Structure prediction request, 518 residues.
Amino acid sequence: MIELDSLTKRFGDFTAVDHVSFTVETGEFFGLLGPNGAGKTTTISMLSTVLLPTEGEIKIDGQPLNRNTPKQKRKLSVITQEYSMRQDMNMEEVMEYQGRLYFLPRNVIREKTKELLNMTDLWEYRKRTVRHLSGGMKRKLMICRSLLIEPEILLLDEPTAGMDALSRRQMWSLLKKLNGDNMTVILTTHYMEEAQALCDRVALMNRGKLQKLDSPENLIRELGAFAVDEDEESIFFQNREDAISYLRESKNDCALRTTTLEDVFVKCAGQKLER
Amino acid sequence: MGIITVLWEKWVEFRRDFYKITVAAMISPLMYLIIFGMGIQTTSHGEPYLHFLIPGIVSMATMTGSFSAIAQNMSVQRLYEKALDQVMVSPTPLWQFIVGQIIGGSLRGMYAGGVILILTFPIRTNLIFNGLSLLILFLNGTVFATIALVFSFLAKSYTDAPRFTAYIIMPMSFLCNTFFSTDQMPNGFRQIISLLPLSQTSSMVRSIANGNAPGAFGFIVLLCYLFIFGAISVLFIYRKKNL
Prediction:
């Protein structure tokens, strides 16, 4: 279980994360959602100890997490938004470096590297230097690198940013499978359909603050399961009948649809999100 | 152990860039030797100037080799590649990462100094370089690798690394007992310069080269620098909020 207690991060006068508290259960698929600048990446950076909080505390299984807690850090693996890798190493070296940093035996590193690079169709490019890989290949390599150590908790910061639709679906399947094996996954995204498809619970963040925290289904139900789009506004209804009556009475062009997580967020944050 | 992991990483880097590293280590020291030692042929204290110059150039090469190996690499890893994040997240104790960087950086400096020693070997100088000289050069390398670590943690952009070289390494190269004895400097300035690590290293290596025993003071100065900058770099990696 991961506990964030009043986590705050300030950069000078700017508060990137403002007293955020929540708990993620073991084996849960948890989403941190929000527009750019909401504080998602900063929260992930604090969870990975790259940034230290200005206030507050993070605990994993009841034990504090900081830079001097190797036992806690052993449980974590991170896939960052940027390609955080040595650009001058080849794929095999990147994997070996990761394995060595986690004290894995060399034969285990070799076997797992072969398995993971084969799984992601990267094996034949294993001698290629990172700087000569395409964006998609780098992303796959980062996934292989984080899975090499078989983490209990996987932190993903915008893992599908810039991916094509097919690659994104493949990534979703992989994440679902990993979560099915009882791996706790914390994912940040500004793609609402991604969060809706994957997450057990989501935390909606905006301007560093936690706005809402619940399952996507509950958040949608709370807003109203049906939406009528009229001009540039959406009107929400708890049941279909009410929505249809509204449609009939309206003199404007209207369309009926089911409410999405994006509607919840737009309502909550008052901002249009990237689809 | 984390130290071995960092040394392995340094070895991968060294193996890949072997020619670039070797040529870079040779160029400027070799130029100094040719211009000041062979081109402008002078004597110092009744001895050929080259005898004075070689120990200084070797000491300087270990300094620049160690400093540039760490300063440039760590700045790029921290600010541009974000590869330091991989280390920060991992369970490798961060003090081991620091120690690995210091040893790895020093070994790169030793390599640079070794290249110069090999190049000057055909010149019959009768200068003595023994195990103690190597120990002093290693210690010098650790000091400058540690200084480089501190500066790379302070760097705000990866273009800061060349600036640090211009502010620290370049003045030390010329002032710290490399090309001329600090004895000739004015009072006050001389004492300050003689407390800098390269001055002590050059002085000790030169003493051994001329068959004399180095004083203990030089070791104390180098160990003080190593301890102070080592402590700062460990403090930074554990406590700096926005690394």
